[in-house]
Structure formats: C-alpha cells, structure tokens
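Changelog note: in this version the structure field was regenerated for every chain. One regenerated record is shown below for reference.
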Amino acid sequence: MAAGSRLLFLLLLPWLVMASHSPPGCKIRITSKGLDLVKQEGLRFVEQELQNITVSDLHGKEGQFHYNISQVKVVDLQLAFSDLHFQPQQHLVFNINNASISLRFRRQLLYWFFYDIGSINASADGVHIHTVLQLAKDEAGRLKISNITCNASIARMHAGFSGTLRKVYEFLSTFIVTGMRFLLSQQICPSLEHASLVLLNSVLDTVPVRNYVDEHIGIDYSLLRDPAVSTDTLDLDFKGMFFPRARENQELENHAVEPVIKETERMVYVAFSEYFFDSAMHAYFQAGVLAIELQGEKVPKDLEVLLRATFFGTIFMLSPAVDAPLRLVLQVSAPPRCIIKPSGTSVSVSAFLNISLVAPGRPPVQLSSMAMETKLSAKVFLQGKVLRVQLDLRRFRIYSKQSALESLALFSLQAPLKTLLQLTIMPIINERTKKGVQIPLPEGMDFTKEVVTNHAGFLTVGADLHFSKGLREVIEKYRPAPTAPTYPSSRPAEPSMDPRQL
C-alpha cells in the first residue's frame, strides 16, 4: 500500500509542480539601469524624510549647571555617497556612506544666578546608514515592502557655541554632543522604517491590481508569486487576465507560452503572452458585446443594391416587403484567438452574418446566414503606461452554412463585404481599443522610448523610465486628511522657560 502511494505521488509530481507555477500573462523586469533612476528619486525622498526627523529634548544637571536642549531641526544634508542595488532573492539594499547632517537647536542654561538662552549649530559627520528592504506579495497580490532592517551610526559630532556663557557650553560640550549624537542616531532608522513600510507602500498601493477597463470587462494584475531578485534584475509575474464584469470570479486557464525576458539593456521590460490578449477577447465575448447591427440608412447604398440584386429571387417572392429596409447582424461566434510570431501579431475571428428584410409591423425575413472567417493584423504599442492595439483587416472569407452552391453565389459579395468591414466595422473596433489598458506601474512613473519586439508566443516592450510625479507628490495626494484634535475645555499651559522645571 505504501509503495503504491509513493508511485502515485511520483506520477502526480510533475502535474503538481506545473499547477503550483502558473505562467504569467504579463511580466515586468526592472534592470539595474532602471534601479539607478529609482535611486535618484529615492535619494530626494530620503533627504526629505531625514530633514523631518524629530529629536527629543535633551536636559540635565551637572552640579549647579541646569541645561536644556530643545527645538532640534535638521537644516542641511549632504548625502554624497549612496548606493541602491539588488540582493537575491527578494531584497533591495540602500546604503548611505560618509554623509553629514547639519543641525540647529535651542539652548537654555542656568548657572547660579546667570541665565543664558540662544541657539547652537551642530554637525554630525561620518553618517552611515545601511537598510535592506524585503519585497513580497501581499494577500491581495500586490507588491509590498514587507520588512526592513536598518543600521545607522554617526562617527563624530561637533557643535559651535556663542553667547555670554560660551566657555561654560564648551565645558559641557561633551555631555551635549554625546547626548545629541545618541538621540539623532536613534531617530534615523525609525524615520526610514516609517518611510518604507507606510509611505512607500502607499505609493505601491497605486499599482492597479484588479481594475475595471470599461463598462464590460476588468483586468486582474495580481502577482502570482513573490518577486524574483537577481544581482542585476527584479522580475514580477502578474496574472494578466481579463474578466467580464458580469462574471468577475470567472477564471480562464492559461495554456500559453510563458514570456521569457533575457534582455537587460533598457531600464524596464514588459512582456505579454498570447493569454493576455486571448483573455481580453474571451471576456468581451462572454460580455456579449462582440456584435454589431446595421439597418436601413446605416447600410452603405452600394452594398444594399448588390445585396438586393443577389437575393432578388427571394425578395421578389415577398412582394409586400420588397422595399423593406435591410438589416445586417454581424456577430462573433467564438472567442477570437491571438497568435504572436516573430514576424508579427494577428487575431483570428470566426463570425456569422445574418441578412434580413425588416418590414414595419412584420417579423424579420432572413435572406441569408453566412459564415465569415477573418484574420486581423494587430499593431501593439505602449504609450506612457497604457497598452493599445491597432487592428487592420488582412484576410477575409465568407461561405454559406447551408450549401456549397450558395457559397458560390455569395462569391460576388466577398469584395463589398470586405470593404464594409474596412470602412465601417474596423473603425468602430479600433475606437474601442483606442482607450487601451493601463499596465501595472505606480502613479507618477511612465515609460519612454518604447520598442516592441515579437517572439514566439509572446511580445516584449523595452523602455526607459520617467518620473512624471515625485514620490512626495504621490504620497501627499493619497495621504489621509488629518482629523481635528480634541482639546480639553482649558488650554494647555505654555512650556516653562526655566530649565529646572524640565
């Protein structure tokens, strides 16, 4: 029995491995060149965060000396040496070396009957900060910074004193500078942890995960697994599946070729498999919108004359309805299929065309029901962070679903119906695809200099990155509005100017 169980497990093992590794419909690779651009914007963000560091007041007593250091503010930062790089398997490492932080704070000193108040300028030099960010997929399938480790140190710190008790401050400088260096170094990592786990994650929240594309379909960009980080790249595997809004929980199995990105020359690469496009067309088909109806004046005059001549015998037998308007109903009969080859991208569509006479007050009379097979060429392009598709009719064939003889009679309709598709139907379809669909990038980040390359079963888009908005701008846009604090009936007492009461 045990041997049989082991044999069954071995037979099922390949299937279980395949099931646990669902191929992505969309894949994004960020390279070291892209990370360099992110570092520039990230460094500006870190500078802003460090300038907002809040340092606790420092107060104490040495003999008859009472001192209080308060209102500590960062007035300048020099982050000359910084580095951001990938660290396998899921990490980003951000280092700042030999930085300097200039401070200004308020001083208060009481010595016997002498009282002194003023400001002190100080500088922390040899500042070293080492942070490691762990990236992971959260429960919603969104990329998140799941953890951060941080170490900060200050090699030296000195302060300049002035005023009537300058010599006394120089005497106490050891206590003050040592205390300030400790307090400052203790605030660097909590500030960066909040910036990463709260503020930067709020930027990642702007990446679309499950969004509506239009009134008919939506797109699922949830991550399939944690990001894969190598020394030079970060790869993200997205589900990349469209769904009809009326059936949001409907799943379409992915049997397409998995996209493979080998290039590293550009800042970022996005790959789309045939499944990505197939699921879009399948969702539209399920939504029941892949149909169009032309009736009366909407039918081109030349085509109407030809159709009436072709079906003259049938129409003549319907003498009361001879002058009734024509109605053409074109409906896709199965979900279209996308085929991506190195030579180009095409879409195969099967449909049927019903031609009827619609006399007022009488039921429609069907003249013909013909099958259509078309092949469309597809031009895929990316603008900013919106993927668009331009379709063009390449091949067209009609035939009767009833007899070969009728198919022969329909041969004369081949050219005019193709013209109808090109001049009337294709503009309507391309108007729908013109809006496009957003790819999963954070707000404020766009693509530039995009180049599309076709492969067998998938296509890739190589591009450079551009920040149209800074991180701070995006964070402030989505920061919750502060709630008004509740104060007691009496105002709080003003802070004392006497260091002895601190």
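Spot check on this record: The longest strand covers residues 114-137. The chain has nine helices and 22 strands.
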